[in-house]
Amino acid sequence: MTTAAKQAEQLEVGLTLHRVGKQYGPITVLTGIDLTLRPGEVLALLGENGAGKSTVASIISGLVAPSTGSMTWRGAPYAPAAPADALSAGIGLIHQEMRLLPDLSIAENVFVGRLPMRGGRIDRAAMNARAAEQLKRLGLNVPPTTLVRHLRVAAQQQVEIAKALTLNAKLLIFDEPTAALGLDETDRLFEQIRRLKGEGVSFIYISHRLDEIPRIADRVAVIRDGRMVATHDTAQVPTKTLVEQMVGRPLDRMFPTIDPPPLETAPLLEVDGLTSARGDFADVSFSVRPGEVFGLAGIIGAGRTELVRAISGADPVSSGTVKINGQLVRLDGPRDALSRGVVLVPEDRKGQALILPQTIADNLALGNYARVAPSGWISRARTEDFARQAIKRFLIKGTAGQRVGQLSGGNQQKIVIAKSILRDPKVVILDEPTRGIDVGARAAIYQIVADLAREGMAVIVVSSDLDEVLGLAHRVMVLSRGRNRGVLDRETAGRVSVMELATT
Question: Is it the case that residue 294 has pLDDT exceeding 90?
Answer without folding.
Answer: yes
